[in-house]
Amino acid sequence: MARVGVVALSLVVVLLGAGLPRPAAAKTQVFLSKLPKSLVVSVSPKHGDVLHAGDDKLTVTWSPNATAGSDAAFKSVKVKLCYAPASRTDRGWRKANDDLHKDKACQFKVTVQPYAAGAGGNGTFDYVVARDIPTASYFVRAYAVDESGTEVAYGQSSPDAAFDVAGITGIHTSLKVAAGVFSTFSIAALAFFFVVEKRKKDK
C-alpha cells in the first residue's frame, strides 16, 4: 500500500514538473565594439530630409564589405531605426549602450530579411515609417545574424548624416473642434442648471 502511495506521489511530481515552464536559455552577450563592420548600409533620405510618420518611406540597401572577411555565418539581416546622437542628448530612455541587449538607441524594427548569399549578399527594403515613430533624427543600422539569432556583424548609415522624422501628435483638427464643442456645451449646461437651482431656491 505504501509503495502505491509513493508511485502516485512520484507521478504527481512528474506531471507538475512537466507543466512548469522551462527557464529561457540565456542570451549571448554581444558588444557592438566587438562586431566586425561587415555590412555597407545606405538609406534613401539625405541628411536633413524630413519624413512623415505613417506616410513617407525610406529605402535601405546593404551589401557585404569586401574587406571584412567571410560571410559564411550570415543567415539573415536585421535592420533597425536608431536615434541619432543629437536626439539622445539628456534622454536616458534613448541611451546607446555597447551591450546590444541594453542598448536603447536602436529601438525600432525595420525588417528582418534572409541573407541573400546567392545574390552576393546584396539586399534592399522599402520601409514606410511606422505611425508610432516619434519626432527625432535617425540613422539606420543593419546586423548580420547567424543561425542562432545572434548578431555577428553590422553596418550602418552615418549618424552624422541623419534624417528627420516628424511624428504623429495624435491630435487631429476634427478632434480639437469636437473638444471645443463639448467644452462649450458643458459650460452652457452648467450655467443652465445653476439658473434652475437658483430659481428653485428663490421660490
Taken in chain order, the helices and strands follow as HEEEEEEEEEH
Note poorly predicted spans.
4-9, 11-16, 171-179
CATH topology (fold) name of the domain at 32-166: Immunoglobulin-like
Assign the CATH architecture of the domain at 32-166: Sandwich
User: What is the helix content?
Assistant: 10-25%
Count of strand segments: 9
Q: Quaternary status of these chains?
A: single chain
Strand percent estimate: 25-35%
Rg over CA atoms: 28 Å
Question: On the 0-100 scale, what is the average pLDDT?
Answer: 83
The N- to C-terminal Cα distance equals 90 Å
Structural class: alpha+beta
GO cellular component, one term: plasma membrane
Function: Involved in nitrate transport.
Organism: Leersia perrieri
Family: Belongs to the NAR2 family.
